[in-house]
Amino acid sequence: MQCKLMAVVLAAAIPLCASAQSSVTIYGVADAALAKEDTGAPGGSRTVVNSGNQSTSRVGFRGVEDLGNGLSAVFNLEAGVALDSGMGDTSLFGRRSVVGLKGGFGTVLIGREYTPIADVANASDINGQGFYGTNLNSFGTNRLTRRISNSVNYKSNSMGGVVVSAGYGLGETLVGPSMDLMGLALEYKANNIYVGAGYHQVERLASGDDKEMIFGAGFTAGPVEVRGNYMVANPTGNGNKYEQANAGVSYTFGANKIYGNLQQSKLEGGAKGNGFSLAYSYALSKRTNVYTSYASIRNNNKAAFGIFSAGAQVTPDALKGQSGSDPSAFSVGVRHSF
């Protein structure tokens, strides 16, 4: 049923593009890879075809209408697609579904949107939240929040390189804690320098609010780019604090680009995992590249941290006694954007 609905949406959008090319755009990414994944536990190794090892495969629609006097109406609908199976996400446009207004005041969007912290996490990850070893594992198992539904969001225009983002997501609960999320981020992007910080507060329990924080930075000097971040998820209660740090560098020469990242994750109570990742990309054109990536994490006997790429994850199962296992993953893939 979901695939039929996607086909109807695509068919309906084609005449829009033909008659209003300047206002509606169909775009997407097709990314697939052959991968060897190993959770580090007995029997945990397998060879798979994955979708989205560098970038999540997707189809999207975005548009803008000039309303005059510097005001525009904007929208974006984006659906995830699994190239290995042809399936779509559980929610048709679960990646992003927003509509709003843009003008001299900035941009206001309503719907399902990326959180302020997610913007900083993406900008300060050397892997661009792609390849095995990305910082996306900090958003797993309800740690940091990457997207918010039922939300109202604001992003300012650049003010000398400074951009302010704010989001409020409504939990829409009838009883108990509201599950509302309030988020704020401040970013500076200018002169090949990036600095960002973000904060979330989530009313998840009556006993107190969950808190999420990020600090990120980076700079570019010719072919060399350096990015890093520090993230904290501090849920209500004792002994729940999660921390992750990343430090990465990339080097571009011609059509080639090499990425390297060091990562540490830890939980209050002693669980710790130290990881590293390496990736290589070769651009066949402006839209198509081939790549390979490898990542590994060494967990202590209390930890079961995993490896995430844009569209896949390799994680030991702590419930099955796999804490202390050391996951690893290797992939070779191709990505095309349109």
TrEMBL record:
Residues 7-301 form the Porin domain. Keywords: Cell outer membrane, Ion transport, Membrane, Porin, Signal, Transmembrane, Transmembrane beta strand, Transport. It holds the Pfam family Porin_4. InterPro entries: Gram-neg_bact_OMP, Gram_neg_porin_domain, Porin_dom_sf, Porin_Gram-ve, Porin_Neis. Transmembrane segments: none annotated. It is found in: Cell outer membrane. It is a multi-pass membrane protein. It comes from the Bacteria. Homotrimer. This is Porin.
